[in-house]
Amino acid sequence: MRTFTDDSTTVTSCAPRLYPSAAEEEEVEEEKRPVEKTQMKAEKRKRQPEKTAKVKKKKSTEQKDPVVTQTKEMDEQKPKKKRKRKKKTITDVLASSELKPGSPADLQDLVTLYFSDKRSVIELEELKLADSSFLSSNDLTHTLSSYLKQVCPKWAKIQKQHSESSSVVILIVCSSALRAIELIKQVTAFKGEAKAVKLFAKHIKMEEQVKLLQKGVAHIGVGTPGRIAALIEKEGLNLQALRYVVLDWNWRDQKLRRMGDIPEIRLDLMKLLESGIFSACREEKVKIGLF
């Protein structure tokens, strides 16, 4: 409805309005505002739990972080444990080294090393043997029989001349009783009619060995340095007929140790050499061979 005023008359028109008035627009906007506000509040309420969850996560992570950092700091402060290197055994060293035949110098070095803190300088000089005191050494190609034939070519004559009891012509020294039995078997091809005796402690009493040596004539003695030294000390064995001392130097046991590498055998060997063999070598009565 539209109203027209013209001085004296007022005319009301019933024609429809195409555009809303300013007042109507304001009313519509006012109606929209509360609806928008309620929608905004609802959206805020939806977002709030998400924010609280994020905040909780942050707090939890913030709480965990100090613990982690503390443990890291503690780990850094702790001294790092050094890995202990395994000490190399004689077996390891010998397994990695080349097998070389023994020489007189090896025996001389062993004697000097053993007696260095037990003898004076002058006494150490007396323990040194001349080159003439040694037989040729085994070059790792010989059997025991072939080696003995090389170093003692006149054996047939020597064995016939030997007639003394409680003494032997050849003394073969090894590291164990089992090895002694092996060597007695190996010497069969060399000895001929000569007699070989066992001179070790395993299953054999010393009294029995003394009686055996006194009864008959033995040409070759094969045994361990400990028992041989004990027999010499007890006068069950003498060195009057002795001409050759053969050391089973190059043979190695299961741990690849030679007789000079085993502490207890080395000790017994030094005692044996000191019990009269060194002096006999200096007098040129006895010669030492390294088999």
Describe this structure in words.
Helices cover 52% and strands 10% of the residues. It is an alpha/beta fold. It has a domain at 100-290: 3-Layer(aba) Sandwich (Rossmann fold). Helix 10 packs across helix 11. Residues 1-16 and 57-62 have low confidence and may be disordered. Residues 30-42 have a biased composition (Basic and acidic residues).
Largest β-sheet summary? 5 strands, parallel
CATH topology of the domain at 100-290: Rossmann fold
- The total count of helices amounts to 11
Q: pLDDT under 50 segments (min length 5)?
A: 1-16, 57-62
Tell me, what's the shape? elongated
Helical residues, percent:
40-55%
Mean pLDDT over the residues: 81
Q: Which strand-content bin applies to the residues?
A: 5-15%
Task: Say how many strands there are.
Answer: 7
Cα distance spanning the termini: 143 Å
List keywords for this structure.
291 residues, 52% helix, disordered N terminus, Rossmann fold, alpha/beta, five-stranded parallel β-sheet, P-loop_NTPase, 10% strand, two-stranded antiparallel sheet
Topology diagram in text:
Layout: E1 2-6, E2 9-13, H1 22-77, H2 90-96, H3 104-115, H4 121-127, H5 144-151, H6 155-161, E3 170-173, H7 177-186, H8 188-191, E4 196-199, H9 206-215, E5 220-223, H10 225-233, E6 244-247, H11 263-282, E7 287-290
Helix pairs in contact: 10-11
